[in-house]
Amino acid sequence: MSCNFGNNIKITVFGQSHSEAIGVVIDGLPAGFKIDTEKTAAFMARRAPGQNDLSTPRKEADEVKILSGVVDTVTCGAPLCAIIENTNTRSGDYDKLRLVPRPSHSDFAAMMKHGGFNDIRGGGNFSGRLTAPLCFAGAVCMQMLEEKGIHIGAHIASIGMANDEKFDPVNVNKADFKKILSKPFPVINDKQGELMRKEIYDAKACGDSVGGTIECAVVGMPAGIGDPIFDGLENRISAAVFGIPAVKGIEFGSGFEGSKLRGSRNNDGFTAENGETKTLTNNHGGILGGISSGMPVVFRCAIKPTPSIGMQQQSVNVETLENQELVIGGRHDPCIVPRAVPCVEAAAAVVIADYICK
Questions:
Q1: Which residue range is the domain that position 120 belongs to?
Q2: What are 106-144's pLDDT values in tens digits?
Q3: Model confidence at 89, in pLDDT bands (50, 70, 90)?
Q4: Domain containing 21 — which CATH number?
Q5: What's this model's pTM, rounded to 2 decimal places?
Q6: 57-62: long-range contacts (C-beta < 8 A, 24 or more apart)?
Q7: What distance lies between CA 241 and its chain's CA centroid?
């Protein structure tokens, strides 16, 4: 099913953008693990809307209520069910969209699939709002992974034409992640971050939007995790990351740039170091044959510009089949990239935990 993910630790995301609540069921968590609720709340706050003028004005506290699966915040072996109430919805903003789909949104495709019965309010279950329960599941998984010495971090790699520095693919470490977390705008180079913020403000000023990319790394990953062919580590991470609305591409290691190189430059030579076999470079992004190599897992994903913009766009009335101009109202992010950073970390965490935390 499309809302389910995982083999050993299984997560099911449920709800719609404007339903009473959204949530997640996490089945397969080992009993006896104490969840740090302050850390999960801090993680959730990173993607919560309405925190500054770079995001949607819709304000949601994203407070998580755990219904089952824990006793005094310690997992008990039962499925963990958590909900997040939707408290600041304006469903009337979407009335005119029932017959006139928004360009580059799921509206039209969902109408065709569900015969017009899809929930159009806020995008229904296609909404980025559903990344909130994903982030809760990811926050729990990250805590379990940290106990095993595995750490995950991400930063904004680009917005529009402004680019941040990249992680050092060989030496990236948890200290790098901690430094990024200390900043209100998650970048490595703050000067480039200011250029990114200008890209967002410029787009917002004219009622437009802008996209970008996010780079994520997993450090402390042991070698030998994953499978070949259809169930490789790259496959699984990609599937989870594409569960984040607006993701349109993903690459590992040198990715598309590596495809322009000769093998002599793109290959990663092996070396013995401190009793371990490592690679001198990390163009393979920490994954060979679908299996972890022991080097940092490094990948980048592309986030499209927010489709809901204040400019006039071309659409069609699906009932009359007449062309119609559309101006979208409501509250929307001029750029969703900053709020998507923890979502990417969460997606990576649920995949790695599914392999390791059995």
A1: 4-356
A2: 888 888 888 888 887 777 787 888 999 999 999 999 999
A3: low
A4: 3.60.150.10
A5: 0.94
A6: 57/331, 58/88, 58/90, 58/331, 59/88, 60/84, 60/86, 60/87, 60/88, 60/132, 61/87, 62/132
A7: 6
